[in-house]
Amino acid sequence: MGLIRDREVTVDRSKTRAVVWATVFGGAGVLHFTARRFYDAIVPAQLPGPARYWTWGSAVAEFGLAAAIASPGTREKAAVPAALFLAGVLPANVKMALDWQRDPRKSPLLRAGGWVRVVGQVPMIMSVLRLRGQGR
User: CA 127, CA 7: separation in Å to the nearest integer?
Assistant: First the structure.
């Protein structure tokens, strides 16, 4: 009975992880379109082309990742691309944190929150990688 219960808990956690990540990526995709100016502002200037295209492109990538994670048949294959995406947006999160440090209008709590977001990338990447082995 203990083995069956442990397996049920593992299945529940894997489903929960998939739902959470599909929601996170899908929600972020929506935000990239609805709060475009915020995201445009954190696109590193070193990237070629208008920031808006990077914002829109990342939204499309997030929608694709959300769909792939939501589907049990593609969930495992989406884990590594999702982790790479999260690593790829790290420079934007660092830029945001640095910008907030320089902005006297930002509260100390918000300034600290910017860095928490940067540090939080590591456990996020580790979590999304745990989708491997959680397909069908």
Answer: 19
Name every residue whose Cβ is closer than 8 Å to that of residue 59 and which is 6 or more positions away in sequence: 28, 29, 30, 32, 33
In-domain check, residue 24 = yes
Write down the residue that tokens 């910017």 correspond to.
114
pLDDT of residue 136: 52
Residue 136 lies in a domain: no
Residue 11 pLDDT more than 90?
no
pLDDT at site 13? 76
pTM above 0.70, yes or no: yes
Residue 15: which domain range? 2-129
Report CA-CA distances (Å) from 84 to 57, 76, 108, 116. 15, 14, 30, 19
How many distinct structural domains can be found in the chain? 1
Residue type, 3: L
The reply to whether 91 falls in a domain is yes
Strand ranges (E), the chain: none
